[in-house]
Amino acid sequence: LMAVDVAAASDTVLRIGASGRVALPLPEGDAWSYLATSPDGRWLAGARHLNGAWDIVAWPAGRPQGVIAVTADATLDDDPAWSPSGDRVLFMSERGGLSQVLAYGLADHTLKRLTDAPAGARQPALAPDGALYYATFLWDGWAIARVRPLALGAAAPPARPVLGRRNSVKTATHATRGRPSAGRVSLCWLS
User: Fold this and answer.
1) Model confidence, pTM
2) Three-state secondary structure call for residue 39
3) What is d(CA 100, CA 120) in angstroms, rounded to the nearest whole number?
4) How far is CA 111 from CA 18, 154, 177, in A?
5) Buried (b) or exposed (e) across 115-135, using 16+ Cβ within 10 A?
6) d(Cα 20, Cα 14) in Å, to the nearest integer?
7) What digits encode the pLDDT tens for the residues 143-174?
8) pLDDT tier, 128 (very low <50, low <70, confident <90, very high otherwise)
Protein backbone atom coordinates (compact mmCIF):
# COMPACT_ATOMS: atom_id res chain seq x y z
CA LEU A 1 0.00 0.00 0.00
CA MET A 2 1.30 3.47 -0.87
CA ALA A 3 0.04 6.75 0.57
CA VAL A 4 0.89 10.42 0.17
CA ASP A 5 1.96 11.83 3.54
CA VAL A 6 -0.22 14.97 3.71
CA ALA A 7 1.43 15.99 6.98
CA ALA A 8 4.63 16.42 4.95
CA ALA A 9 2.88 18.77 2.47
CA SER A 10 2.24 15.99 -0.10
CA ASP A 11 5.89 15.68 -1.10
CA THR A 12 6.52 12.38 0.71
CA VAL A 13 5.13 9.02 -0.33
CA LEU A 14 5.04 6.17 2.17
CA ARG A 15 4.97 2.44 1.55
CA ILE A 16 2.90 0.94 4.33
CA GLY A 17 3.43 -2.71 5.14
CA ALA A 18 3.97 -5.21 7.93
CA SER A 19 7.25 -3.54 8.87
CA GLY A 20 5.61 -0.12 9.22
CA ARG A 21 5.89 3.05 7.16
CA VAL A 22 8.87 3.61 4.88
CA ALA A 23 9.42 6.76 2.79
CA LEU A 24 9.94 5.93 -0.88
CA PRO A 25 12.72 7.56 -2.90
CA LEU A 26 10.98 9.83 -5.42
CA PRO A 27 11.94 11.89 -8.45
CA GLU A 28 11.95 15.65 -7.98
CA GLY A 29 8.46 17.07 -7.36
CA ASP A 30 6.59 19.71 -5.37
CA ALA A 31 3.68 17.38 -4.56
CA TRP A 32 2.32 13.93 -5.46
CA SER A 33 -1.18 12.65 -6.13
CA TYR A 34 -2.10 9.11 -7.24
CA LEU A 35 0.67 6.50 -7.44
CA ALA A 36 0.57 2.99 -8.88
CA THR A 37 2.95 0.02 -8.81
CA SER A 38 3.41 -2.07 -11.97
CA PRO A 39 2.09 -5.66 -11.73
CA ASP A 40 5.61 -7.07 -11.36
CA GLY A 41 6.55 -4.41 -8.77
CA ARG A 42 9.53 -3.18 -10.81
CA TRP A 43 8.08 0.23 -11.80
CA LEU A 44 6.14 3.06 -10.19
CA ALA A 45 3.98 5.67 -11.90
CA GLY A 46 2.68 8.80 -10.28
CA ALA A 47 0.96 12.11 -10.81
CA ARG A 48 3.59 14.72 -9.96
CA HIS A 49 3.22 18.46 -9.47
CA LEU A 50 6.31 20.32 -10.66
CA ASN A 51 6.77 23.82 -12.10
CA GLY A 52 3.06 24.59 -11.79
CA ALA A 53 1.76 21.52 -13.68
CA TRP A 54 0.42 18.04 -12.88
CA ASP A 55 2.05 15.43 -15.11
CA ILE A 56 2.51 11.66 -15.16
CA VAL A 57 5.96 10.16 -14.59
CA ALA A 58 7.22 6.58 -14.33
CA TRP A 59 10.45 5.28 -12.80
CA PRO A 60 12.11 2.02 -11.79
CA ALA A 61 11.26 1.18 -8.17
CA GLY A 62 14.08 2.36 -5.92
CA ARG A 63 15.75 4.32 -8.75
CA PRO A 64 14.05 7.73 -9.05
CA GLN A 65 16.95 9.07 -11.14
CA GLY A 66 15.63 6.82 -13.97
CA VAL A 67 12.40 8.85 -14.22
CA ILE A 68 10.56 8.97 -17.56
CA ALA A 69 8.28 11.94 -18.22
CA VAL A 70 5.13 10.34 -19.64
CA THR A 71 3.65 13.84 -20.00
CA ALA A 72 5.29 17.25 -19.67
CA ASP A 73 2.84 20.02 -20.46
CA ALA A 74 0.36 22.45 -18.87
CA THR A 75 -2.55 20.00 -19.24
CA LEU A 76 -3.88 18.31 -16.09
CA ASP A 77 -2.87 14.62 -16.07
CA ASP A 78 -3.74 12.31 -13.14
CA ASP A 79 -4.96 8.85 -12.06
CA PRO A 80 -2.10 6.61 -13.29
CA ALA A 81 -2.71 2.85 -13.54
CA TRP A 82 -0.84 -0.02 -15.20
CA SER A 83 -1.91 -2.44 -17.90
CA PRO A 84 -1.98 -6.07 -16.64
CA SER A 85 1.19 -6.80 -18.66
CA GLY A 86 2.98 -3.77 -17.19
CA ASP A 87 3.99 -2.40 -20.59
CA ARG A 88 1.66 0.63 -20.54
CA VAL A 89 0.70 3.37 -18.12
CA LEU A 90 -2.93 4.42 -18.36
CA PHE A 91 -3.99 7.82 -17.04
CA MET A 92 -6.55 10.60 -17.23
CA SER A 93 -5.75 13.72 -19.24
CA GLU A 94 -7.70 16.90 -19.90
CA ARG A 95 -5.71 17.77 -23.04
CA GLY A 96 -8.89 17.72 -25.17
CA GLY A 97 -10.78 19.93 -22.71
CA LEU A 98 -12.64 17.03 -21.09
CA SER A 99 -10.94 14.24 -19.17
CA GLN A 100 -10.27 11.10 -21.22
CA VAL A 101 -8.13 7.99 -20.69
CA LEU A 102 -4.79 7.74 -22.50
CA ALA A 103 -2.16 4.98 -22.59
CA TYR A 104 1.60 5.45 -22.77
CA GLY A 105 3.79 2.61 -24.06
CA LEU A 106 7.00 2.27 -22.05
CA ALA A 107 8.86 0.46 -24.83
CA ASP A 108 7.82 2.55 -27.84
CA HIS A 109 7.04 5.86 -26.04
CA THR A 110 3.70 6.18 -27.86
CA LEU A 111 0.67 7.96 -26.48
CA LYS A 112 -2.79 6.72 -27.48
CA ARG A 113 -6.22 7.97 -26.49
CA LEU A 114 -8.44 5.08 -25.34
CA THR A 115 -11.77 6.76 -24.56
CA ASP A 116 -14.13 9.28 -26.10
CA ALA A 117 -16.63 9.46 -23.23
CA PRO A 118 -19.16 12.31 -23.64
CA ALA A 119 -19.01 13.17 -19.91
CA GLY A 120 -15.30 12.42 -19.51
CA ALA A 121 -13.40 9.42 -18.15
CA ARG A 122 -11.22 9.12 -15.02
CA GLN A 123 -9.53 6.46 -12.87
CA PRO A 124 -8.86 3.83 -15.54
CA ALA A 125 -8.45 0.13 -14.85
CA LEU A 126 -7.57 -2.31 -17.62
CA ALA A 127 -8.80 -5.86 -16.97
CA PRO A 128 -6.76 -8.92 -18.05
CA ASP A 129 -9.28 -9.57 -20.86
CA GLY A 130 -8.59 -6.08 -22.25
CA ALA A 131 -11.83 -4.47 -21.07
CA LEU A 132 -11.34 -0.91 -19.87
CA TYR A 133 -13.21 0.28 -16.78
CA TYR A 134 -13.34 3.96 -15.88
CA ALA A 135 -15.29 6.43 -13.76
CA THR A 136 -17.61 8.82 -15.55
CA PHE A 137 -20.51 11.09 -14.69
CA LEU A 138 -24.10 10.26 -15.65
CA TRP A 139 -27.40 12.04 -15.09
CA ASP A 140 -27.67 10.82 -11.48
CA GLY A 141 -24.03 10.88 -10.37
CA TRP A 142 -20.77 9.02 -10.77
CA ALA A 143 -20.74 5.67 -12.55
CA ILE A 144 -18.31 2.94 -13.52
CA ALA A 145 -18.33 2.29 -17.26
CA ARG A 146 -16.92 -0.70 -19.13
CA VAL A 147 -15.98 -0.58 -22.77
CA ARG A 148 -15.31 -3.51 -25.07
CA PRO A 149 -11.83 -5.01 -25.10
CA LEU A 150 -9.41 -2.52 -26.55
CA ALA A 151 -6.84 -3.00 -29.25
CA LEU A 152 -4.09 -0.89 -27.70
CA GLY A 153 -2.43 -0.61 -31.07
CA ALA A 154 -5.45 1.19 -32.54
CA ALA A 155 -4.82 4.75 -33.67
CA ALA A 156 -7.98 6.25 -32.16
CA PRO A 157 -10.94 5.34 -29.97
CA PRO A 158 -14.17 4.20 -31.57
CA ALA A 159 -16.31 7.01 -32.96
CA ARG A 160 -19.06 8.44 -30.78
CA PRO A 161 -22.45 6.89 -31.46
CA VAL A 162 -24.99 8.81 -33.47
CA LEU A 163 -27.80 10.05 -31.25
CA GLY A 164 -30.68 7.62 -31.43
CA ARG A 165 -32.98 5.41 -29.39
CA ARG A 166 -31.05 2.22 -30.16
CA ASN A 167 -27.65 3.59 -29.18
CA SER A 168 -26.89 2.46 -25.67
CA VAL A 169 -24.22 0.63 -23.76
CA LYS A 170 -24.46 -1.76 -20.84
CA THR A 171 -22.98 -0.20 -17.72
CA ALA A 172 -22.96 -0.86 -14.02
CA THR A 173 -23.56 2.38 -12.18
CA HIS A 174 -23.41 3.57 -8.63
CA ALA A 175 -25.42 6.69 -7.97
CA THR A 176 -24.06 9.30 -5.60
CA ARG A 177 -27.33 9.34 -3.67
CA GLY A 178 -26.69 5.84 -2.36
CA ARG A 179 -29.01 4.01 -4.73
CA PRO A 180 -27.17 1.72 -7.11
CA SER A 181 -28.69 1.13 -10.49
CA ALA A 182 -27.77 -0.94 -13.50
CA GLY A 183 -29.17 -1.12 -16.95
CA ARG A 184 -28.97 0.47 -20.34
CA VAL A 185 -27.63 3.97 -20.40
CA SER A 186 -28.21 6.05 -23.51
CA LEU A 187 -25.21 7.79 -24.95
CA CYS A 188 -25.92 11.26 -26.23
CA TRP A 189 -23.47 13.68 -27.74
CA LEU A 190 -24.57 17.16 -28.60
CA SER A 191 -22.26 19.28 -30.69
Assistant:
1) 0.75
2) coil
3) 5
4) 37, 11, 36
5) bbbebbbbbbbbeeeeebbbb
6) 9
7) 999 987 555 655 555 554 443 344 444 444 44
8) confident
